[in-house]
Description:
The protein is mainly alpha-helical and 348 residues long. Among the domains are: 55-173, Cytochrome Bc1 Complex, Chain D, domain 2 (Orthogonal Bundle); 256-348, Orthogonal Bundle (Cytochrome Bc1 Complex, Chain D, domain 2), CATH 1.10.760.10. 38% of the residues lie in helices and 2% in strands. It has a two-stranded antiparallel sheet with strand order 1-2. The longest helix is centred in the N-terminal third of the chain and has 22 residues, at 2-23.
Amino acid sequence: MFSCRRLIGAALLGLAGAAMAQAGYPGIGRAATPKEVAAWDIDVRPDFKGLPKGQGSVAQGQDLWEARCASCHGIFGESNSVFSPLVGGTTKDDVKTGRVARLTDPAFPGRTTLMKVSTVSTLWDYIHRAMPWNAPKSLSHDEVYAVTAFMLNLGGIVPDDFVLSDRTMAQAQGLLPNRNGTTTDHAMWPGTKGRKPDVQGSACMSNCAAEPQLASFLPDFARNAHGNLAEQNRMVGAQHGADTTRPAGTPPAPAATPATAAAAPAALGLLGKNGCSACHAQDSKLVGPALRDIARRHAGRADAVEYLTGKIRGGGAGVWGEIPMPPQTLPEADAQAIARWLAEGAKR
């Protein structure tokens, strides 16, 4: 009888908790499934918890690097004029000591990734979740192991025949040049003793100062000094930029013709959806050329749509400078729509 009452009491408590959880938003939401949780729970800790099984060799990583990574990071990790170098600045002595001497050398101002990173798990985790730039999370676990192994080999950390895996990750960690370069002296790490944190703060609960109201405006003499701000912002989010080609307080420019108005927002939406806006602006050069410049170069070309679709999908190098554009994985229909918009003048 006693155990039965306990079971009934526990059941009633569970129902009460569920009712309270639903009180604010009844009928909304559900518990995440194990598969959904697993899709988000991909982080790898410095103690290698969360590291999936798999392996990849330096040789396999070299092939992947040249196909998927070198366009941004260089054949030898030296990177190009946009991205910071990944490799360099470390020595064999650093591998032995676990501290990169050049980090405290004012005569060597460069700071590469392998000089700063203190855990191999950081490299693996970032490559896994964010690379390659144009298709993050597209690498398999074995491919991430291989690319990480090749990067470590470029830095002289592991030999040419090394195979990085969930079983050899600790071995690679023991050779990382800056593995002993971390510190807890900043007193921000849990359990740190002997030093107060640099910043002391407390929540204001009474006699609080009024929240200041800040405002700013763009002086007339500087209004269009750097081009139209409205055309230099992504078409997502709250900040779209002011039309600096017109005086402050005037209404926006007249709307485009119906045909252009219908095509331009669709194309601009595809640019944002497929990540094109990260490298290309409407009227100014970013990583890649301005979209209007691309449209001008190919104006009047009979096969402009077909040509531009091929360049978008296949990538290219040397036409607009030293920075190559890697192949893009967007759908064929999206590529054709963007190419058609460019061929018609890239009108907004």
